[in-house]
Amino acid sequence: MRQTSKTRRTIGIRGQLMGFLCFICFLLVGLFWFLSTQLLEPLYTTHIQKQLTEQAEAIVARMDEAIERGETLSYWAFGSQLYVNNTFFNSLRDDIFELGGMSSFCIDISDTTLRQIFKVDNLSYCNLHRTRPTDSSDEKAAYTTARAMRQLCRESGGAVVRKINPPSPSGSVQLMVGRMTADGNYTVLVTTSLMHVAEAGKVLSTVLPLAAALIFAFSMSAAWLFSEWFTKPLRALSGAARQVAQGNYAVHVDSVRNDELGDLAQEFNHMAKEVQHASQMQRDLLANVSHDLRTPLTSIYGACSTVIDNYDSLGREQKIKLLSEACADAQWLNRMVENLLSVTRIDADGVAIQKTPTVLEELVDTVLVRFQKLHPGVPVEVKLPDDFIVIPMDSMLIQQVLTNLLENAVLHAKGMTCLTLRVFTLGRRAVFEVIDNGCGIPKERLKTLFTGTTLTQDTSSGGKHGMGIGLSVCAAIIKAHGGEIKAESTPGEGTTIRFWLETEEVDTEETEDEQ
Question: In terms of pTM, does the model score above 0.70?
Answer without folding.
Answer: no
